[in-house]
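Q: I have two molecules that I believe assemble together. Could you output structure tokens for the complex as a whole instead of separate predictions?
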Amino acid sequence: MRAGWAPYPLLALALAAAMLLALGVGSVRIDPTVVAEVVARRFGAGLDVSVFDDRIVWQLRMPRVLGAAATGAGLALCGAVLQSLTRNDLAEPYLLGISGGAAVGAVSVLVLGVSVAGVGAVGVGAGAFAGALGALVLVLGLAAGRTGALPPARVVLAGAAVGQICAAYTSFIVIMSGDHDAARRVLNWTLGSLAGVRWTGAVTLLAIVAVAFVLIMAYTSALDAFAFGESAAGSLGVNVRATRWTLLLVTALVTAGLVSFTGAIGFVGLVVPHLVRLVCGPTHRRLLPLSALAGAFLLVVADTLARSLVDGQEIPIGVLTAVVGAPVFAWLLRREGRST
Amino acid sequence: MRVGAQDVTWIRGGQTVLDSVTAEMPEGAVTGLIGPNGSGKTSLLLLLAGLHRPAHGRVLLGEREVATLPARERARLVALLEQQAATSLPLTARQVVELGRIPYRGRWPGAADPAASVVDEAMAAAHVQELAERGWNTLSGGERQRVQLARSLAQQPSVLLLDEPTNHLDLGHQLDLLRTVRRLGVTTVAALHDLDLAAAYCDRLVVLDEGRVAASGPVEEVLDSGLVARVYGVTAEVERHRSAGRVTVVWHR
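A: Yes, here they are, computed for all two components at once.
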């Protein structure tokens, strides 16, 4: 067993420290000890804190930081599962047309202002979620064979095809609308942001990821068994078809949920599982929890940088996840390359 | 545990790959599956492993039909050594062997396998202990084959299915592997290309030709020059070698 148990406490500590720091950083700087006092008071410690500090730390920043942690954990977890399930190193959470479909939904709302009879105007999040589900149904319909088998190669290709259609639709609508502000809002949305996450959003995100984590951890052995392909998995007692359907649906629904709150945040789901595999090995009972922790850490750091690097403006978080993650990934890849 | 195929027909992608195959592989015996490329050897092994359902006919494990067994139970009874197992994951040899314990593991991680020593024993039996910490992608073809054999043994199977197990192995390791398998005393079905090896290490043969059984029975009854000519289109002398004390095949063409 490589690297032993040390990564768990190390990553957990790093995540806690990053979150504490993130709560203090922003347009108003708040001392970490004050941040700790605010949090402690909310958990029942009898401390005196100002209403102002409480409002900034607990009402505004805490949901965003928790949302970032949940989103990062969820994306990394889904990426790890999909890479193993499809035996494809380039698999990532948006594999099943989720980001494309979500963009179609979001653009329809942002530019065209879709409304549903009896419900009224649809929010961007709801539109994105509906779009993601639509794309998912289309991808699975294209990929599933007559017998209900779900060959991973076809899933990947169907995802690519649906993604292209969605991208074409999105570009068409944005260009034809002639509304420059709409174009900017759409671009912002597709690069992802946690700016809109409030407490209800944060709690929802945490709940989605917690439930998914428990469900997925029941499949650690099954995912290990896919190392040598589907016949090997089958001969190790894994019900290949049921496992594929279950895990593809769970990861797709989780990703659709995340996307509807934050937009499509790239890189985390693709790279974090590879990083963890390089350091801690590919066994899933370690890979999955460590990926979740590492993904949470990366996204908390990236989101903090996104809202604090440039005064008065947010940098799209997708840009930062790539800037933070890519060099680390390149370095680890080189190191691995030398040892084999 | 005996294995039996009864009138098994399998159609794959519109192609009939097995056509009314009936074969009996008795308990404790090593049965060789021989025949030219594309004759259906791998297909028959996949059906015996319960990985696919035949279009017609039944595959029996003992008295039970393999298609009706729950997947985990099946995996504790039957282990399959595939041709050219491949992975891009950075697994160590020991981690590969540990995959064989999956049918015995609980659903949730954490609970230790009560029979962890089985992994050590399996690695010892396949002579791969010294490879334990080596990465899978640093192993030679022959080493990989032996590690996969150890993984199969870690499943503690009653039936061992081997698809070209001696591929990639040098002569010494070919003989070692087949001798190891023989000593286990487990019911074994092995697809083999080398007729000499098949004659030396198998009790019985099932000869496949274009998805049909061309002959089956004890080695000495099945293997003769007529069969080799008919199935492989090769002229050969098949006779009992005086000093080796077994049937040998010497080809001419």
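A: One point stands out. Chain B touches chain A through 36 residues (CB under 8 Å).
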